[in-house]
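Reminder to self: tokens first, then the designed residues, so the page reads top to bottom the way the pipeline ran.
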């Protein structure tokens, strides 16, 4: 059987009108016009009483890796790789050396991670029980994220509560079946 890669996507959205944002229940006498000064920074006024609110498009991909693993990915481990400078000294006389420091992420809590472009952070999904015939190292794939912020909405917002997955760039659950995030 040939291995296959499947990808499914959707573009759900949450609609927030200026009226919902600007007219709190505690102050129903406020008018739409009076609130634009307060919320102007959160959007662009495109016509009278119509505010195009700033927003983000978040994409979430679930990967169930079975990297040369007959157990369906059960043996796959994840590590975080950061580039670190080597301190100047006899082993680095020109102070230009750096290395890739690899750190295993052993628990689901440890594997809730953010990107770090300053350290060229990547994550490796590795099957330690299968060696590459050329390198003699365990087979692995790298997740190489691009620089993008996690959810910008405040942690107490409805958006953050509904889209908690978007508060981190990586969530790894160790191949546990039935775990959505």
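Designed residues (181 positions):
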């Amino acid at each position: 059987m040939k291995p296959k890669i499947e990808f499914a996507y959707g573009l759900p959205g949450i609609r927030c009108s200026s009226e919902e944002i600007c007219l709190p229940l505690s102050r129903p006498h406020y008018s739409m016009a009076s609130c634009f000064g307060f919320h102007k920074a959160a959007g662009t006024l495109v016509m009278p009483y119509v505010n195009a609110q700033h927003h983000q498009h978040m994409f979430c991909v679930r990967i169930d890796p079975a990297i040369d693993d007959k157990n369906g990915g059960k043996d796959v481990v994840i590590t975080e790789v950061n580039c670190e400078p080597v301190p100047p000294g006899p082993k680095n006389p020109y102070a230009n050396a750096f290395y890739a420091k690899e750190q295993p992420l052993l628990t689901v809590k440890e594997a809730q991670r953010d990107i770090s472009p300053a350290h060229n952070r990547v994550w490796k999904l590795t099957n330690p029980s299968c060696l590459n015939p050329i390198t003699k190292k365990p087979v692995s794939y790298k997740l190489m994220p691009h620089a993008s912020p996690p959810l910008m909405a405040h942690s107490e917002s409805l958006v953050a509560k509904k889209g908690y997955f978007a508060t981190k760039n990586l969530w790894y659950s160790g191949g546990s079946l039935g775990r959505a995030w």
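The first helix runs from residue 18 to 22.
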